[in-house]
Amino acid sequence: MDNIDFDQHSAKGEVAGSFLLGLVESFHHLQILPDGGMQLQAVDIDPTLWYPHSMLIDTLKNIEKTVPAFENIFFRAGVNFLRIWHENGPGKTMVHSSRDWLYANKESGGYNSVVRGGIPDEIGWCLLQSIDEEAGIAIYENVMPLAPEFIRGVFYGGCILFDDLEYIDVEATNEPYEPNPAFRRCIVTIRFRYKPAGIARNLDEKLAALRFGSSVALTAPEVESLIWRYKGLQVKVDLDAAYYSGINAILANTIRTTQAQRDEIELLSNHDALTGLPNRRLALDRLKMACSRAIREKGRFAVLFLDADGFKGINDTYGHEAGDLVLRAIAARLSSCVRAVDTVARQGGDEFLVILSDVAGPSAAGHVAEKILSATARPVYYGDQLLSVSVSIGVAVFPDHGKSTEELLKNADIAMYSIKRTGKNNFAVFLP
Q1: Secondary structure of residue 422 in the 3-state scheme
Q2: Rounded distance, CA 332 to CA 413, Å?
Q3: What is d(CA 177, CA 144) in angstroms, rounded to the nearest whole number?
Q4: Residue 5: what pLDDT?
Q5: Which DSSP string corresponds to 213-230?
Q6: In Å, how far are 25, 73, 76, 269, 271 from 29, measured between CA atoms?
Q7: Where are the domains of the chain?
Q8: What CA–CA distance (Å, rounded) separates 286 from 267?
Q9: 16-20, 252-256, 350-354: which has the highest mean pLDDT?
Q10: Cβ count within 10 A of residue 264
Q11: What is the DSSP track for 207-272?
């Protein structure tokens, strides 16, 4: 978000509250500790209203002052923003596939869903210049007050929302825009490859059936598809590595400064270092948000309290390295069993918490619990040893089994210990 000192307060355009809120929340979701603390606040922004375009410029200035000037942070924020725009903004009615997203700005429609009025040089634009689906390339021109890496992240985020692309990579140029020094002109180039429908299904089925020690026969098109998936995964791994490398550099610098800053890092840390999952603090925040939302919308959600069976025996027999491996495996398997809107957290030790959003009732939550039991029952390989893993699960549903976070956690815990007493490796729904 460069060169935004140009006076934009006379611009006649408007910006959607959903855009402002998404910008702020996209940075709040990052694991960063900017100098001076996070100053961005979203509580006064109504996502249903439109605001003067000057508020966008003021918000970007606030971000520029608050967030470390690190490209990969802005890229990750752009990915976060697109997810928020799709889940809570106009994107939820505009985009239902990667193809929808690639064409969203054919006539600047995506950008104009969050900015309107005024002349283009005052509010900016995003236009699809060309697209060749067969060659897998799309080119966009963007003139906006947003950082190029943020824009790059937005386009990448839109392409990974759906599981219909097997390869995606995004590049963005950056140059001044002379008619308005507050803006940057970016040419965004997206290279992509759709999953061939029939081949993708067959390949997914073969990969799902593949077990350790077995083999699989692939056709030439399936091998080609697998190679492109691997290349796409390499892009993601490189992006993640660059992001976390930058985060580590920022944290290392902060740690070197003072012990007080080290204490602040520990206080503000929201994720478990071993598994990468949200920790108890963040899980409780999300549980409170789920309660508030369910009360407001008269909805339901479920809390699953999980405890690993026999974990102490694994630690005592094979050591903490094996125990850590088991915890990471459980975390990955839990995450694979739920939706992106759900939360999987590590409570501490060998305890985990799952928050399922918008469930129909106890039976639906039980279905997810069964899925988790099946996923976690697979052994974990530790060298040449097979470590047996299972979990005991207690289920509590709002409002059936509690109308507060404390009551839901207590009742899920009671249900989980009823399984511990009667054989483990199962689940129970709380019985009032």
Answers
A1: coil
A2: 22
A3: 9
A4: 45
A5: T------HHHHHHHHHHH
A6: 6, 11, 9, 12, 11
A7: 1-269, 280-429
A8: 17
A9: 350-354
A10: 14
A11: HHH--TT------HHHHHHHHHHHHHHHHHHHHHHHHHHHHHHHHHHHHHH-HHHHHHHHHH--B-
Catalytic positions:
350
Q: Output the pLDDT for position 109.
A: 77
Average pLDDT over residues 40-47: 68
Sorted by sequence, the CB contacts under 8 Å of residue 244 that are 6+ apart come out as none
- Fold for the domain defined by 1-269: H-NOX domain (3.90.1520)
Q: Is the pTM value of this prediction over 0.70? A: no
How high does pLDDT run on average in the chain? 86
Cβ–Cβ under 8 Å, residues 408 and 402: yes
Q: Which CATH architecture has domain 280-429?
A: 2-Layer Sandwich (3.30)
Q: How many residues are present in the chain?
A: 432
135 vs 9 pLDDT, higher one: 135
pLDDT at 4: 44
- State the Cα–Cα distance between residues 223 and 207, nearest whole angstrom: 12
Per CATH, 1-269 and 280-429 having the same topology is answered no
Q: 278 by DSSP, 3-state: which?
A: strand
Among 369, 279, 390, CA closest to 326: 390
Instruction: Quick: pLDDT tens for 353-387.
Output: 999 999 999 999 999 999 999 999 999 999 888 99
Token readout for 223 is 């091998």
What digits encode the pLDDT tens for the residues 253-284?
A: 766 665 665 566 665 678 888 998 999 989 99
Q: Strand 427-429 vs strand 391-398: parallel, antiparallel, or unpaired?
A: parallel
Instruction: Using DSSP, state whether 36 is helix, strand or coil.
Output: coil
Facing residues of 126 across strands? 142
Residues 62, 84: Cα–Cα separation, whole Å: 20
Please say if the pLDDT value at position 87 is more than 60.
yes
